[in-house]
Amino acid sequence: TDSDTADEAVRATCDDASTCKRFATSKGYWTDPYIQYFVRQTGERKAPEINRGYYARVHGMNHLLDAFLKKTECNCQVVNLGAGLDTTFWRLKGINMMPKKYFEVDFSMIVARKIHNIKTKPPLSKQLIETHSTDSLLFDGHSLDSDRYCIIGADLRDLRGLEEKLKKFQLNTELPTLFLSECVLVYMTPEQSSKLVHWVADTFHTAMFVNYEQVNMGDRFGQVMVENLQRRQCTLAGVEVCCSLDSQKERFLSNGWENADALDMMTVYSILPQDDIARIEHLEFLDEKELLQQLLQHYCICWASKDKLRLGLSQLAF
Ligand code: SAM
User: Fold this and answer.
1) Other beta carbons within 10 Å of 163
2) What's the CA-to-centroid distance between 288 and ligand 1, angstroms?
3) What's the pLDDT at 270?
4) Is 5 exposed, middle or buried (CB count within 10 Å of its CB: 0-12, 13-18, 19+)?
């Protein structure tokens, strides 16, 4: 059916993201010793502005995630929505900054692939076993559960199914919990993403949500970005409403969240640690500085919090 084709195109975006991250790490933009186990080949060359864009995306997300872990002293949970082949769990294990439990959710088909990689690649499974107290890890085709890491196959548009599965794997609604969505909500309709955001606010009294996605898509550059995706049968269902930084914040503020902030990625790029920016800007020659600026102005990070425990989550920023 049409909707199967559409979902398949959305699932394919997971490979795009990982392939671009793999390429950028092969060029030295940042280190990720684990991504090679999910994406075998470095793949074809990506333009320097794409690599810098991924650098800003990964560092922007990591910055807020690490700030949340510090603020809660790791006495928290993390739920990565539409995680794809993301390697963040292994990064956190490596720097000894693990939450009580790290959850990932994606379509069953993606989850099955990820579990297969984990099972067959000892450097990945070793880290899981090290964080697990008994010798019985639960694996089935569509989910994996251990003490500290859990992957669940679910459709984020089906909230009842999502809640049921997260609870089955001991998601604790009393613990401060960080939700991450990196290029995910934009593939759902505005109603579907609003409901998801609302459900999180209703379910947790102390939580943070960090969302990365396209923004300011109303101009010519934005239209070209949309057309490029449509050519591959991929619709950005969420793009029209969430078109400005204000509407990004509004999605949270009108759905049960106390605080929300948003920055476009050009701004994030200009406030990330500048010594490292200087380093990456020497990795590859970038002819068209304006192209990078335009690209970065069409992506943003929005973060929202609610804080019954008064941990100071609203202070988390760049
Ligand atoms: N967050 C990862 C990253 O940034 O590397 C992957 C991003 S990829 C562009 C989007 C991911 O969201 C895909 O893995 C896709 O399968 C997942 N996704 C999109 N819509 C979803 C839905 N309704 N339910 C579950 N997963 C979904």
Assistant:
1) 15
2) 30
3) 97
4) exposed
Whole-Å CA distances, 270 to 49, 64, 282, 318? 15, 16, 16, 11
Q: Are 259 and 314 in contact (CB under 8 A)?
A: yes
Classified as helix, coil or strand, 284 is: coil
Q: Which run of H or of E encompasses 261?
A: strand 259-264
User: What's the CA-to-centroid distance between 278 and ligand 1, angstroms?
Assistant: 31
d(CA 46, CA 50): 6
Check if 99 has its Cβ closer than 6 Å to any atom of ligand 1.
Answer: no
CA of 152 to the centre of ligand 1 (A): 13
Residue 106 is given by DSSP the state E
> Is 107 close to ligand 1, i.e. is its CB under 6 Å away?
yes
Separation of alpha carbons 128 and 93, rounded Å: 9
- How far is the centre of ligand 1, averaged over its atoms, from the C-alpha of 167 (Å)? 21
Helices (H) and strands (E) counted in the chain, each on its own, are: 12, 9
Task: For residues 89 and 78, give the distance between their C-alpha atoms in angstroms, rounded to a whole number.
Answer: 10
Query: pLDDT digit string (tens) for 185-206?
Result: 999 999 999 999 999 999 999 9
Cα 106 to middle of ligand 1, angstroms? 6
| pLDDT, position 102 | 98
Per the structure block, which two tokens stand in for 90?
Answer: 């292994």
Give the residues of the chain that fall short of pLDDT 70.
1, 135-136, 240-242
- Please say whether the beta carbons of 99 and 179 come within 8 A: no
10 lines ligand 1 (CB under 6 A): yes
Task: State if residue 82 touches ligand 1 by the CB under 6 angstroms criterion.
Answer: yes
The pair of structure tokens assigned to 152 is 């669940």
Output the pTM of the full model.
0.96
The phi, psi pair for 38, rounded to 5°, reads -105, -30
pLDDT score for 135: 65
